[in-house]
Amino acid sequence: MPVDSPVSDSPASRAVPSKTLTPRSADLMAPAVPGAECAGSVPGPRTARSGPGTSATAPAGHRAGQGTDRGTGQGTDRGTGRGTGQGTGHGTDRGAARGAARGTGHGTSPRPGRSLPSRLRAAVRAIEERTPAHRDRAVDGLRALALLAVPLGHWMLGGFTLGGDGSLHNASPLATLGFFAPLSWLLQMLGIFFLVGGCSSVLSLRRSAERGDALGQWLGGRLARLGRPVLGVTAVWAVLLGVLSLLGVPGGTLRTAAVLVVQPLWFVGIYAGVTALTPLCARAARRWGLWSAVPLLGSVAVVDFLRYGPLASQMPSWLGLLNLLPGWLFSYQLGVCWGLGRLRRAGGYVLLTGGAVLFAVLLLVFGYPASMVGVPGEARTNSHPPSLLVLALAAAQCGAAVLLRNRIARLLRRPALWAPVVVVNLSAMTVLCWHQTAMLAAAVPATAAGGGVAGLTTAPDSLGWVVARLAWLPVFAVLLVAVGSVTRRFETPWGGAGRGVRAAAGALAAAFALYAVAVV
Predict the structure, then answer these.
(1) Which of 11, 282, 416, 469 has an alpha carbon within 20 to 30 A of 219's alpha carbon?
(2) Taking phi first (over 0 means left), then psi (-120 to 50 degrees means alpha), and beta for anything else, what does residue 400 get?
């Protein structure tokens, strides 16, 4: 998800093109200014002394000279050359003292001719030096963990079968390999997503109010950052569907591709909805603390009783949709409480133990499905819409996150572990929107070879498939990096795109949406 940049004057732009690191791609879930950490956070160590004219918490590349950081102004980075970084500065809602490193100089960038390991070490050091001391590394780490669980879950819990005409059809190992169900408990980490999102959103809203920004301005900015990547992926796929059709790809494969592309995007819509409720969530958290989440849990429990209890046969089929908002708002409300200091370690123990007990009771006594994701052919699902079992798991995960916060923060003080967290956070929406495309980029060409490819287009119904699919994971990851290196620009403001381009993108996205609705 879009989050405030975890670094100042983003040093990772030395390792990859700056356009892929400087946008406000990490803003929706990340506390980014002094005092903005979630409750109980411990600021990390300061990593550089401030030179003349520098912010004390804004390391800015003091290798061979001095740098300046002027809040909402500009900063200079004088390393082996000179460049200017135009950021929004410290203490703002637009990044953790972001400098875009858009100059012509080098600063602390690796010198040409150095080996790849040396360049990587230099990039890791630069990221560490430019990370503000107040950065809540645990929150960033939790977000990165939850984010990476999304592609891993889809890649491991989803598969394909080949139709008679060579078309791809969705399948799942969960349909035949029952032991896979507990894996879904680990990979279903949306509770952590919403926890971190609520925490950082309420802090962002508070900073916005302190600056005198209107509520509509704050909300509009966050929704725009969610919408741009979605508009990009759907517009691109509208074109791809036409191209693939002209190349003779079967219609069944095109329908499968549309379903997979849409699959993670529902989350964006739900997240946008709960983000709009942040002011109300904050008011409830200040007044009732952790108790403000209890009515949401109770609402889901009542709906579950009606649709699964003795009156189930008399209930309408749409009844479960009533769980959509309270089901996902539950973890978000916990995050708002965390950000406002109303959820601390005592509450973490309550959530962990209470969630674990409720999860076990629902699973063993009330017969809830074991899988946390939908299983083809099964009439009952836990996740769409969320059942009470999803909230029980989310409560346990959120409690564990609160209790482990300090340990995670200490662990991520290691530069080699912190640097990947920064990179993942800066590409959150790209990973979410394009990871299914990466898998399709391997599977669709494989169908042309004829016959099934183990772990890719063969039925996911054996341990052999599991082993082969594990071997495919690095391939999917490489393809995602390749695709993301091109598509990440959709996360940035489309300032350089004219009205015609924007209108065309909107029309293409609408066309894809109509097609997806027809086939999903």
Answers:
(1) 11
(2) alpha
CA angle centred on 248, ends 247 and 249, rounded to 5°: 100
- Closest by CA to 265, choosing from 224, 231, 241, 240, is 231
How many whole angstroms separate alpha carbon 349 and alpha carbon 58?
A: 36
User: What pLDDT does residue 1 have?
Assistant: 59
Cβ-contact 147, 432 below 8 angstroms? yes
Q: What is the pLDDT of residue 449?
A: 76
Q: 33: left (phi > 0), else alpha (psi -120 to 50), else beta?
A: beta
Q: What's the angle, vertex CA 187, arms to CA 332 and CA 452, rounded to 5?
A: 140
Collapsed DSSP state (helix, strand, coil) of residue 80: coil
Question: pTM of the prediction?
Answer: 0.79
DSSP state letters, 219-242: HHHHHHHHHHHHHHHHHHHHHHHH
For the ranges 9-13, 117-121, 246-250, 399-403, the maximum mean pLDDT occurs at 399-403
Angle among Cα 217, 218, 220 to the nearest 5 degrees reads: 65
Contact 72, 95 (CB under 8 A): no
Bridge partners of residue 159, in order along the sequence: 171
Mean pLDDT comparison of 68-77, 109-118, 270-279, highest-scoring range: 270-279
196 in Cβ contact with 152 (< 8 Å) = no
What pLDDT, on a 0 to 100 scale, did the predictor assign at position 141?
A: 96
**Token digits of residue 7:** 């670094």
**Omega prior to 385 cis, within 30 of 0:** yes
